[in-house]
Amino acid sequence: QVQLVESGGGLVQPGGSLRLSCVASGLTFSIYNMTWYRQAPGKERELVATITADDDITNYAASVKGRFTISRDNGRHTVSLQMNSLQPEDTAVYLCAAKFKFGTLEYNYWGQGTQVTVSS
Predict the structure, then answer these.
(1) Of 45, 71, 46, which is closest to residue 58 (Cα–Cα)?
(2) Would the pLDDT of 54 be above 90?
(3) Buried (b) or exposed (e) across 71-81, using 16+ Cβ within 10 A?
(4) How many angstroms separate the Cα of 57 from the Cα of each of 13, 33, 74?
(5) Mean pLDDT of the region 52-67
(6) How many angstroms separate the CA atoms of 3 and 98, rounded?
């Protein structure tokens, strides 16, 4: 069965850094596009960053561009999110997602999330 397990969340002061990791099992990790989302209380889920499967092309939300970096290690089935210069508005549950689409074939998997709180 497919599992995505996030880790690395916690409490950090404004201006601080955190590194989130998401370890995947039960799937052929290298063929999946990987995405980090976040959801703050009372707000819609927001795409934070994505990295493609075959050529590691990255894309970021405007709100995190220049502060966050997404990367993947196919050998370790891991996608990471390095978050720098964190601000209170970055407070949210961060979830990773694995997506594969080929023609009409589509698979989507989600992790449970890890809480990030930015506060002094």
Answers:
(1) 71
(2) no
(3) ebeeeebbbbb
(4) 30, 10, 14
(5) 95
(6) 10
